[in-house]
Amino acid sequence: MSASHPMQRALLRSLAWIARYRYLKFGIVGASGTVVNLVMLHIGHEYLFHSIEAAYKKPYASLALAITLATLNNFTWNRLWTWSDRVRALEKGLTSGHVNLRLLGTEFGQYVTASSFGSAVQYFLTLLLAGYIDYRIANIIAILSASVSNFLANDRWTFRRRKPH
Length: 165
Hints:
mainly alpha
């Protein structure tokens, strides 16, 4: 397939369009985090913590593990893709283009803190709804409920625009 193939050009135009819209990128990353979350929630509840959670019929430990791993996934991809322009600009001002571990640690701490409200909403709403519907469906509803606050907190604080030094 040559570089001028119509399908390839259409795909590249689509990717360029997505790249211009940060919330759409955040949503795509969030979708990958939802997959991580649901897979780990299922594995945790049905296998890893089954003997602990079976009596309660609610995924207490599994949900904590799922949220933690999804948060790591989402931080990584949001930093590398959703807000990469802001991260690169900040790193360029601090180092000679290499990853600054102090900045990475600060951003991760801010990301977790900024996402903690959404994580708490997700955790408690999932547990509440799991009493009435399947815990996986409850989790999807809870994730969607928390997504807007997570975007706003991370856009305005963790990966905010910074004035050049």
